[in-house]
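User: My collaborator and I are trying to settle a disagreement about how two of our proteins should look. Neither of us wants to argue from intuition anymore, so we agreed to look at predicted structures for both before our next call. Could you fold the first one, then the second, and keep them clearly separated?

Assistant: That sounds like a sensible way to settle it. I'll keep them separate. The first protein:
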Amino acid sequence: MNKSQIIDIYSYDDWANKKLMNAVGQLENEEFVRDLSSSFSSIRDTMVHILSAEELWLSRWMGEHGRTQLNPADFPTYNSIAERWDSLRNNYDDFLLSLTEEALTQELSFKTLKGESHSLELWKQMLHVTNHSTYHRGQTVTMLRQLKKQPPSLDLISYYLRER
């Protein structure tokens, strides 16, 4: 995978996150935090998990250590998550611009939240992050349907067709 492809998949990730955030932003706060019995109890908790994972991985790639998961309770409203997401997106943009082809193929060591040490090429880690976010966005779409809301189409093909 080369830099252009990584930038493309992260552009999709940003597009899908924004579309989902727009849909989530239409919810009443009670719906946003309602326990819907998924992997994470609520839409808020699921969105915070996506945000947290994207922040955590970026921090690893930037050489930061010791970061933990975000606490959903620290994000009581949609706006509190949206503001944090805007900041993260700017940080990703800076990182992607500075990325080199050589860096993508280099193995980068990291520790899981359980303290397990691993090493893997950067491009594989980066692809994992977008895949992880896609998985949890899908869960959020299901929760929106449980609330009788019309979720957006977040398929990669929809993104590519929009870009034509």
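The second protein, kept apart from the first:
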Amino acid sequence: MNTNSTSLKNRIYTSIFNGIILGEYAPDQVINEKGLMEKFHVSRAPIREALIELCNENVLYSIPYYGYKITPLTDEDVANVKAYRCVMECGFMRDNWDKLTSDVLDNMDRLYIKNATAETDAISHWNENIDFHLAFFQIYGNQYAYQNLRSAMSLQTRAYALTRWNEWHSSFFHDVPEFHMPILEAIRENEQEKALSLLRADIISI
């Protein structure tokens, strides 16, 4: 796949995903390739690639010869993804503790300061939270785990949109991640168990 087709697929993926979390697609609505081709004015190939990725992340499920529907979310699904993230993110932090150097933490500080606004729209707030957690995983250098974390957070994005529906659709809401800076401070102080405890609390707080 060349760079242009990959970029087109990613743009279509993002547009469909954002449409799902913003309620543009009803839970029982059938999403089909022909309708998306007309909407985006593109060929079938990038549409299908975006839909396959959404199915791989369990955002959509395929109905053969019919189309796609949004995968329903249950409380158990959300609890399972939180448990998975706790095990994976805390495990990787523990195993890669020596990679969390001062230079790395300085970069993370800059990301935190950039994102830690007192007032923000809910979508930006959640995306900033994703950026923070994925930034740690880039440090660890495991692309397979990084992609799995992205998939897990895609599921949580939909759950977050549902639980914070009114705020998600309003212009602003007041909320900043309360654990991010304490996590970074604990790492700087080489307090591993404290950092892990804060990371776990951050994951399950959403």
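Some points you might bring to the call about the second protein. Strands lie at 60-63, 67-70. Confidence is low (pLDDT under 50) at residues 170-176.
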